[in-house]
Write a structure and sequence with these properties.
By secondary structure, the protein is α/β, with parallel strands linked by helices. The protein is 41% helix and 27% strand. It is built from 11 helices and 13 strands. The strands form 3 sheets. Strands 10-9-8-13-11-12 form a 6-stranded mixed beta sheet, sandwiched between helices. Strands 2-1-6-7 form a 4-stranded parallel beta sheet, with helices on both faces. Strand 11 (219-225), helix 10 and strand 12 (248-251) form a beta-alpha-beta unit. The radius of gyration is 18 Å and the shape is globular. The two termini are 30 Å apart. The model is unreliable at 171-177 (pLDDT under 50).
């Protein structure tokens, strides 16, 4: 049996993980000196209030021992392992996974750098399940995922650039303009890195621009939010009307909330 392993930024809930056959490895985050594990999405308590009330923030990739233990236990149970990682340009998680795979036995473990996270990583996890259910081998599935990752697109917007600036995940951006003029940046995950790709003014224009960017024929469309579920629903409904298909609405967990801010709204999709 081939078991999928991924980190908690895929934002899976417990039932999805069981249905998809996914082993979930949690990241950690620290608020005002208190460290928490990121659990399955919707099992993290009132993390939004904790983040909004905190003065100091930090996140950490899963410790290398967590992957050594996960890989070793799965191999001892006779399983092969397909590990899907958050983008290597956003976290050191991928490098640790590769080291652990070599330590445990790399011929039965494949680590894929998805070059994405959140909704994009969720799309990759679902695709992996479909490939495995169709009978593809470990190597074949890893190769197909590496071929498709360039077609997984992400676009998102925030109202406050400070979390991204603080996290160091984005180069210089005109933050003062965004704050003073209520101009909200459009951001994308391109080749694994967060990059600015436009500006909009106000929430209604933000939602319109996000919906407009998703092409007709896009597949597996996922709208994601943290605090503003109403904006998420507006974007979901607009996309369903445009695309003529069901669009998923999914929350994002605390680790990405610290880096992106709790007011994020975004969309991920697979290019036609």
């Amino acid at each position: 049996m081939i078991v999928i392993v991924t980190d908690s930024t895929a934002c899976l809930n417990r039932q999805e993980a069981e249905r998809l056959g996914v082993t979930h490895v949690p990241m950690t985050y620290t608020l005002d000196g208190v460290t928490h594990r990121e659990h399955f999405v919707e099992e993290n308590g009132d993390y939004i209030a904790r983040i909004e009330g905190a003065k100091t923030f930090a996140t950490s990739q899963p410790p290398i021992d967590a992957y050594l233990k996960t890989f070793a236990e799965l191999r001892q149970a006779g399983h092969q392992v397909l590990c899907l990682s958050i983008s290597s340009r956003l976290s050191g998680t991928y490098a640790n996974e590769v080291v652990c795979a070599r330590e445990v036995g790399s011929e039965d473990i494949r680590v894929v750098d998805t070059l994405t996270t959140a909704g994009g990583l969720y799309i990759m996890v679902r695709a992996a399940r479909q490939f495995l259910d169709a009978g593809y081998s470990l190597s074949e599935t890893a190769e197909k995922l590496e071929q498709m990752r360039g077609k997984v697109k992400t676009l998102f917007s925030v109202g406050d650039m400070e979390p991204l600036r603080r996290s160091g995940r984005l180069g210089p951006v005109r933050q003062s303009v965004c704050t003073v003029l209520n101009v909200r940046p459009l951001l994308t995950c391109r080749e694994g890195a967060v990059m600015a790709c436009g500006l909009v003014r106000g929430k209604s224009e933000q939602i319109r621009a996000l919906a407009q960017a998703v092409p007709t024929g896009a597949r597996g469309v996922v709208v994601q939010y943290i605090k503003d579920i109403e904006a998420g629903r507006q974007l979901q409904h607009r996309l369903e009307s445009k695309l003529g298909q069901s669009v998923m609405l999914r929350p994002i967990g605390p680790v990405l909330a610290i880096h992106l801010g709790v007011d994020i709204i975004g969309v991920a999709w697979l290019e036609p």
